[in-house]
Amino acid sequence: MSTAPPLQRVAVALFEGFTVLDVYGPVQAFASCRTVQPDGTRRPLFEVFSMASEAGKVKAGEGPASWAEWSFEKAPDYDILLIPGGFGSRKAVADQTFLERLAAASRRARITTTVCTGSALLARTGLLDGRPATSNKIAWDWVTQQGPRVLWKRKARWVDDGNVLTSSGVSAGIDMALSLIARLQGRDEHRHAPGAVDVGRQRDAQSQTIAQHQFRGQQRARSFEVFLNVADDRIGRPSFRIVAGVVGGEVSRLLVL
User: Fold this and answer.
1) Which of 1, 34, 76, 95 lies at 20 to 30 Å from 232 by C-alpha?
2) Closest by CA position to 142, among listed 76, 79, 87
3) CA-CA-CA-CA torsion for 22, 158, 123, 161, nearest 10 degrees?
């Protein structure tokens, strides 16, 4: 008779100006993992809660507010810490009190994960010194300045260094979460999550989320965004979008969403 795996707790560290998908992409991946009991009911493998410097409303960079259920100090025990990125990280890296609380929160966790510029926050605590890590490639120069002793890996969608996992921007956090689920629970469990969150999973940790391309055109100077649907060859339909910023006939950025 098989024993049900123990429930693991995921704590999400919120701050003003966090990126919504950095949080709720991985959260949905964790929340979608369930085992079917003999009576047909589904038992979750992860329990997710949120925390911040103080319990209460925390506004995301995109506008909507989330609710921090706990303060860092009063949060219950947890196994995994999730640190999102966002434009608010630019301010948070200068908040020494917040960084000290974040460092303490990371030390409480068995595994710490970061998405996007969340790695800049963890780098400022010193807990990434001497360790490999990655981050959002658009903000790469700024992020790497926050941790000169970190072994930054630019060519990586996510980096798994045992008890610390860091990912590139936005949707890469979902892939990182799925890879962690696979490691902790086995492939049979993580396979349920991609379908539940309706994403085309990238399984290659070295895959680039940002590609820099340049071309010369005859177009006059202009700025716009091009949206392209990209089909997942496993499910036969569009699963994510590419956003390309074009200025004066030159592709300045290419972002997989």
Assistant:
1) 34
2) 87
3) 130
Q: What is the pLDDT of residues 193-231, one digit of tens each?
A: 544 444 445 556 665 544 333 323 333 333 333 333 333
Same domain, 142 and 191: yes
Q: 246 and 161 in one domain?
A: no
Residue 251 phi/psi, 5° resolution?
A: -75, 115
Helix (H, G, I), strand (E, B) or coil at 187: helix
Is 125 inside a domain boundary? yes
Contact 83/35 with Cβ under 8 angstroms? Answer: no
The DSSP H or E segment spanning 124 is helix 118-124
Pairwise CA distance, residues 145 & 150, whole Å: 10
**DSSP-derived secondary structure letter, 3:** P
In the DSSP assignment, the letter for residue 45 is: S
Cα-based angle 122, 144, 131 (whole degrees, multiple of 5): 55
Query: In angstroms, rounded to a whole number, what is the distance separating the alpha carbons of residues 146 and 28?
Result: 29
Task: Decide if 205 is inside a domain.
Answer: no
In this structure, are 67 and 184 located in the same domain?
Answer: yes
